[in-house]
Amino acid sequence: IILYANTRIIGSITPRHIMTVIMAVFCFRQNLVKWADKYYSLYLLFCGLFCISSLVTGYITEFAGFVFSWLIPGIIAYWATRILRDKYNASQILVYVLLGIGLIDALTTIGQFLHIPLFLEMPDFLRVHGDKDFIEDAESGMDFFGMTIPGLFGSDVYNGYVLVVFTILVFCLYKQIGSLGIIPLWLIALVALFFVQERTAFYLGIAISLFLFYMLQKTMSGTSRILCVLFVLSALIFLTPIIIDFVSSGNSRYTLGLDATNRDKIYEKAEIFIMDHLFLGGWFYCKEYFYFQPHNILLHAILRAGFVGLILVITLLAKQVYAVARI
Which residue, 307, 253, 245, is CA-closest to 281? Predict the structure, then answer.
């Protein structure tokens, strides 16, 4: 959590900067920093192209700020994670830390929906991409049903995907947690995802849950297997009408999510800009003069690092999919 904290301590120094320095010293003292591997090398190449794009379009200062605020902390965190996994065999510890963050985030999301003050103030306390109007809306008594919920991270997009990861981790640890522990955690994750209304994350969370439940029941036998299947069917029978009614009511962002035309204007803007900046991109230039978010990872890749950057991102995604498929 502290990696995302933007509370200024001295001048522009934040807890994220301090934690980055601590982890960097740790990594270099271990003398185990690998400057290139099959994932990291692709990331560095992409960042290099992003730098060239920013330099050519006259936004190198903005890129430098982005590097020190986000890219370097991400790289250091990657190094530290590799070292903890490879040298200290601490993979389980890392997974449980992520699981704990996911649970706190899910409970924060539900608490915000219920207007509980402690959870409403959490994003503002952490200074993390917070929505300044969120607490004011809550204090005015606004009903959040049908609206986005920022959760622990102050952003419905980040929040949604953190909750999807939380859902996956719950099932990956079913042997350690046990069936009775998985069910309430899974329900907490899905309820929180439903309130977040990050559309892709919610649909992805449902799809992954069904697949993982299928994998889970294959490991069971006898009564446990029957109870697992009955529980899933009961949950689907109970939840499906509620979700369909909510989506079809027109009060939620999920309704828009079923209509692809709501992204047409954004994609058209991205297409026009990309055709003029196909090889180098120009993210900061694009943000200043044609402010929009393409809401598409592939379009983001082209806008930041051009066509070659797109190839790097696709390659990285393919490697990750292949690695997951082998697990």
Answer: 307
